[in-house]
Write a structure and sequence with these properties.
Strand order of the largest sheet: 1-5-4
Structural class: alpha+beta
Shape: globular
Length: 95
């Protein structure tokens, strides 16, 4: 079952609250959930997706997570709720 954009956003808000605030102090752009899917250009189309990225550019420091990438993988692999939670937690922790 696919999670909605809003459900993922709410889960990420709750998840971020469990991390020590010090981890987010330098992120002047915060954590952003974006709707698009971002395919990894090193793989054939639709095979691999970029779930998130840590950005350090002229806009500052921020984390982008791509809802569409999660949703594409979830649909292809028939993720249960526990897998959604695990993948979101791993990705946010990694970034």
């Amino acid at each position: 079952m696919s999670w909605t954009f809003d459900r993922v956003g709410e889960f990420l808000d709750d998840l971020a609250d469990r991390f020590p605030p010090a981890l987010f102090e330098e992120l002047n752009g915060g954590v952003n959930l974006l709707e698009e899917a971002v395919e990894d250009p090193e793989f054939p189309p639709g095979e691999m997706y970029i779930l998130g990225e840590y950005c350090d550019d002229c806009l500052g420091l921020y984390i982008n997570l791509y809802y569409g990438s999660f949703a594409a993988l979830a649909e292809r692999e028939a993720w249960a709720d526990a897998v959604w939670e695990e993948e979101l937690a791993i990705t946010l922790s990694h970034e």
